[in-house]
Amino acid sequence: MLDLQFIRDNKALVKKAVRDKGLDVSIDELLDIDAKVRAVSQELDGLRATRNARSKVKPSTDERSALQKLSARIADGEAHYRVLTNQKRKLELLVPNIPSGDSPVGPDTNSNVVIKTVGKPPKFSFQAKSHIELGADLELLDLEAGAIVSGFRGYYLKNAAVRMHLCLMWFALETVAKHGFTLMVPPTIVREFALVGSGHFPFGKEEIYQIANSGRLVNGSEEKAPLYLVGTAEPSLLAYYANRVFEQSQLPIALCGFSPCYRSEIGSYGKDTKGLYRIHEFLKVEQVVIIPADEDIAAQWFSKLTAIAEEMLVALELPYRLVNIATGDMGAGKVKMVDIETWMPSRNDYGETHSNSFLGDWQARRLGIRYKAADGKTRFCYTLNNTALASPRILIALWENLQLKDGSIRVPAVLQPYVGTDRITSSSDGK
After folding, report:
1. pTM for the structure as a whole
2. What is the domain range of residue 11?
3. Residue 210: helix, strand or coil by DSSP?
4. Which one of 352, 379, 410, 423 is the catalytic residue?
5. Active-site pick, 163, 263, 366, 370
6. Residues 278, 347, 410, 423: which is the catalytic one?
7. Does the annotation count 355 as an active-site position?
8. What is the pLDDT of residue 134?
């Protein structure tokens, strides 16, 4: 959410951001409703002042009648004010952030720009297998049973795949903790305000699962507020600090959340229908950073988040590339976004495995996260977030890139202490 005064002063710039991000929101309509809200508020203040002044003296019969009419007029004005403010709030939540000057302008992924490539895709002297084939041959993956039990995009991980799946999360947590992040296991069932605050609502509401039977409260009454399953730990981590005011000395706050994640993938119908690339539930280690409203500090943290993700991919011995995401592909709240894509042989292409985003004060305004600056003024914080590691998608890259001629999978050295072996074979059963 942008500051309304900023929108008033920079209408052309905000309209350009709407166009560049391919969104459907009228800035003129927002400003028109905003003007009406301010006019009605001013009128109500005057009417209330008049009523208060008249109420201080004992009114005559005629004056009582006039006061009743005045009160009725105020009540009507307050109802109109509530309608207008609700309309304004809905439009405010749709206004995008201003993308950075170095973000490519374009409507979709075709406008993204590769900025760095690390490592080379492997050249196999044998017919390489997909992760689906490897998973079946080595008893690591059962997609058929997953579809029967869980439905479309369901899966079972088995044996050594379970160890690798979980050890990847532990490896990510240890790596991030080493860089000073506070580890958290946040709730994955959240109220609506958390998703509105992070910007996942209203834009991505179709991707979020809503819980049908949300349960009962301690007193036995039903939980009236809708509850949702998160698609990332980001909303829960940010909401932890909703409506807080920090001293500048308390910033930055660097958080790392480990959680199951759930996504309906409605917007991806027909895409990546086979295998583990696009699934409904997975595990993820997510980083969130809350900092002062300082562009230089933001740039330093953005680089640090990218570097941590790169550190893990290098340790996992995987080839990858950094991609500067275009305006139409980055989402409404992003100022800047860089994805890391890892080479996946079965796709003969790179696939997204990490995503690093800077959002300015867009989320902090929605959640009321502020700080007292050194000059004594209270300002909204800046926020960043990054996918440290998500699994099982990363298993695609690991299995396919590190497969051997005999059909086994080499385990990278950094994971061997966790997995308990240096190779996954058909006889690895649980090792």
Report:
1. 0.93
2. 4-92
3. strand
4. 352
5. 263
6. 278
7. yes
8. 98
Based on the fold, state whether residues 46 and 182 are members of the same structural domain. Answer: no
Residue 395 belongs to a domain with what CATH number? 3.30.930.10
84 and 120 both lie in a single domain:
no
∠ Cα 116 395 165 (to 5°):
125
- Residue whose structure tokens are 């895709």: 121
Q: Specify whether 278 is catalytic.
A: yes
Q: For residue 396, give the 3-state DSSP assignment.
A: helix
Per-residue model confidence as pLDDT tens digits over 47-78: 999 988 888 777 777 788 888 899 999 999 99
Chain position carrying tokens 């084939």: 133
Assess whether 73 carries a catalytic annotation.
no
How confident is the model over 378-390, as pLDDT tens digits? 999 999 999 999 9
Give all strands (DSSP E) within 123-179, no chain letters. 141-142, 156-157
**Whether residue 29 sits in one domain with residue 146:** no
For 23, phi and psi rounded to 5 degrees?
-100, 165
State which of 92, 127, 145 marks the end of a domain: 92
Position 99 in a domain:
no
Residue 190: phi and psi, rounded to 5, are -135, 160
Q: How far is CA 354 from CA 60, 164, 297, 333, 389, in A?
A: 73, 18, 21, 18, 7
Which residue is catalytic, options 393, 400, 408, 428? 393
What tokens does 372 get? 């007292």
Contact 102, 324 (CB under 8 A): yes
Taking the C-alpha atoms of residue 323 and residue 338, their distance in angstroms, rounded to an integer, is 5
Residue 174: phi and psi, rounded to 5, are -65, -40
54 is catalytic: no
Neighbours of 108 (CB within 10 A): 11
- Sequence-distant (≥ 6) Cβ neighbours of residue 344 within 8 angstroms: 277, 350, 351, 396, 397, 400, 401
Helices (H), 241-316: 295-315
Closest-CA residue to 390 (of 287, 304, 265, 306): 287
Mean pLDDT of the chain: 94
How many folded domains does the chain comprise? Answer: 2
Final residue of a domain: which of 45, 61, 92? 92
Choosing from 130, 259, 355, 408, the catalytic residue is 355
Which tokens hold the place of 27? Answer: 């800035």
Q: What was the pLDDT predicted at 428?
A: 56
User: Are residues 118 and 319 in contact, defined by beta-carbon separation less than 8 angstroms?
Assistant: yes
Lowest pLDDT segment from 85-94, 269-278, 364-373: 269-278
As a whole number of angstroms, the distance between CA 245 and CA 369 comes to: 6
- At 30, which CATH number? 1.10.287.40
In a domain, 102, yes or no: no
